[in-house]
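Page header: ASSEMBLY MODEL / two components / 712 residues total.
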Amino acid sequence: MLKASTGDGESLSTLGELEIVERIRRQVTARAPLGAGPESSGVVFGIGDDAAVLRSSPGRYLLATCDMLFEGVHFLPGVIPPYDLGRKAMASNLSDVAAMGGQPRFALVSMALPPSTGAEAVTKLYEGLIDEAAEHGATIVGGDVIRSPEGVVINVTVIGDVEEAKLVTRSGARPGDVLLVTGPLGAAAAGLDLLRDDSLRRTVGDQVAERAIAAHHRPVPRFREARLLADLRAVRAMLDISDGLARDAATLARCSGVGARLFWERVPVASVAEAVARAAGKDPVAYALSGGEDYELLLAVGIEDVERVVKTLAESTGRAPLQVGEVIEPAKGLVMAMPDGTERPLEARGFDHFVH
Amino acid sequence: MLKASTGDGESLSTLGELEIVERIRRQVTARAPLGAGPESSGVVFGIGDDAAVLRSSPGRYLLATCDMLFEGVHFLPGVIPPYDLGRKAMASNLSDVAAMGGQPRFALVSMALPPSTGAEAVTKLYEGLIDEAAEHGATIVGGDVIRSPEGVVINVTVIGDVEEAKLVTRSGARPGDVLLVTGPLGAAAAGLDLLRDDSLRRTVGDQVAERAIAAHHRPVPRFREARLLADLRAVRAMLDISDGLARDAATLARCSGVGARLFWERVPVASVAEAVARAAGKDPVAYALSGGEDYELLLAVGIEDVERVVKTLAESTGRAPLQVGEVIEPAKGLVMAMPDGTERPLEARGFDHFVH
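Prediction written out in full:
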């Protein structure tokens, strides 16, 4: 019933992920127009940011976000340990709440499991989910467990909250702002390549391989940085980089109605990503631009606040954020400034789950 | 990695659904003890009721619940129209919030879709989700769309709220209370049997078949009744019947720490369920006891309030709730009083998704 009929023939694989999501967003918001305002529906921002922003008690917003993971699509069967999978599934949602300046509070976990699934593996999976939630102040409060005909499916919903004044969306960037990232990128994507290619793994050696695979299996979202940044109230727009710097910079620009210029030479590449890229004969910058799941933060900061932001993060976390680009007029679009002084269009296409 | 190792060998199919969920509940609550109280974690009730009860603003609780559906397990591929599927997936979650006396506010929808899925079918599915949510005052505020290697998976999370004084849990029933249901049961289960058996469908005739299948595809949760009952403040415990009367009565009794006695003769069977049962040579009461997804409400009411509850619902909705049993001392367990005056243990086993 859900198959494309032979008549109209338009299937998801012809549309692609962004178009599908955009159509759904339009369909949903057509019925609940944002203009209707939080007074009537309680929805301050719906689909389109890291998390939905909802009116709750006076002075505070509720934040809600969810992610679904399917075995074989988002994690490799028999590769990621169940405990790590649990932590990662929870972390990506906690990170979305943190990237809005919020504090995660509650989580709901739905899981489809084949009957052959080992009980011990399920326990480990929940241990990872629970540990990651607890470490960041959240509690699992509900969920669902169902039978899967094939493949594990995990959906995590996280509910958090934020003081109104500390909310940081994706949509406040203005031309002239500086684009910063909280740390080097590409390690998780390099780790995924190593998991897929044994000979590459042998080439880079055990030490690099272990670090890159750890980055893929056990990413460290930047909760502390996000909290510090929200407290500073100096960030105009922020999101966590889960689809790669190029795609997420494009998202931030689109949500803010601005353009963006990245500087090729300043794209910060994790040292393990460089080592793996060398061994694979790839461009290391490509890992940072299109590899997702590092969960570093991308932020737009007014030029007058950059020094304060850099200093605060450097002093509190030991890691100074790195300037990777700048916000430009919308008409200038999305561009990459190359070392030779030329500019090229920023390739914002990351991994599309529906089109291959 | 999630397979049972050959060594310990304990897989989900040997444990069964209730035991799996109970283990997860214990694992989660061991880390976030209920005794810690809402002051620290914000969790008033976690796993175990229709929805989690969370501390939000003074005088109000936040409610959160989710359900996952997998094609082939919870709905039949190519049978339920996408629009109906959307409405049903949303309705079951809205119903969980309503069954706690709450008002649904926000929904998040995650969906795994095979690339071959038709774009039109996805639009219809969301139309159903949106219509059902809007009809009951809720807005879709977020979600996720991912690729599925095979089969559609839908997860709906609903967030609602309730005045503290109007919260109705599953855990307040006391011995002596009367057990009521808001309407006849079994139609949805009869509809499912018809969808699985063409010859049975021919036997019962088009008119009965259409009504039973409609009950299965387009259940009508009792939002209005739930609201009226919450306003009355006369209900000690309530839940929506999604697993069949026997299993859900057992759940209510377990959550309240009491026993329950149902009266065989008073189990209300929907007329279409009776017609289908006759044609199938089944006991019609079995449909009502073990067939789920009717979404009528089961409630425990103090004997002094029964008249008021019955009168209010009858006058406001035109349907008087039906007395199906009574709450008894915990030591007396779960029993069915038969027409001949004997009692037998209540078979609380509904459909187990993991054990067949």
